[in-house]
Amino acid sequence: MQFTGTETYVAPPDLAMAVNAAVTLERPLLVKGEPGTGKTELARQVAASLGLPMVEWNIKSTTKAQQGLYEYDAVSRLRDSQLGDARVHEVGNYIRKGKLWQAFDADTKVVLLIDEIDKADIEFPNDLLQELDRMEFHVYETGETIRARHRPVVIITSNNEKELPDAFLRRCFFHYIRFPDVETLKRIVAVHHPDLKPHLLEAALTQFFDLREAPGLKKKPSTSELLDWLKLILAEDLAPEDLTRDPQTMLPKLHGALLKNEQDVALFEKLAFMARRQGR
Fold first, then answer.
1. What gap in Å lies between CA 149 and CA 144, rounded to an integer?
2. What residues pair up with 136 in beta bridges, in sequence order?
3. What is the mean pLDDT of the segment spanning 125-132?
4. Are 12 and 180 in contact (CB under 8 A)?
């Protein structure tokens, strides 16, 4: 089982090596990187490339580790007992399988995505240490132990919003997705916009990297935002010369696809104002 990328996902050699190393070691792959660099999409493409089903667990700030194992609905059982429902005698009727249970209980090997783990409470990763290490957990209400029938390929993503515990990191194979260089970015664009003319692409990338490298930027535009911007450029049928920045704002056309907060827009307007003053 070797991952090399797919027709719709350009995987640099170091990223492909990280995926294959994690699969070989049978350890979770912890993927970090800027938002919009394709961390979540990586898991989907790994599943597609290896021909495996995928189980996706999207983490929120309120998510608890126990929810990934199972949840026991005691309230429904109490209600059914009051109504005399025969289901109440079987506790298993009130246990809802979590994403880890689904992955462990699958008929075949799966890719398990734990997406944006850093959104949860700091104790969340620690609460999953044993389950991800041993690939099993105990259901106290029924007394059974759930073991993985086929060890899943576990991919965990993080936007680095908070530090993860050392004990958790020790159990993972780590990879940081660096922002693509120009040539890799051209390959990525070619997958999504194969008919984009070279001169238009060069002009767009020049503006994009100039924008991205501006000092003081709070949120740098990412790969996904570049692809959205190019889609708009094609929809508006703009020419390379149309992408020249507005001298009043120092911003390119359709910049709302690239800059996502008012502070960054104001930064470029301030730079334009200072440039006009110096030009007097």
1. 15
2. 147
3. 92
4. yes
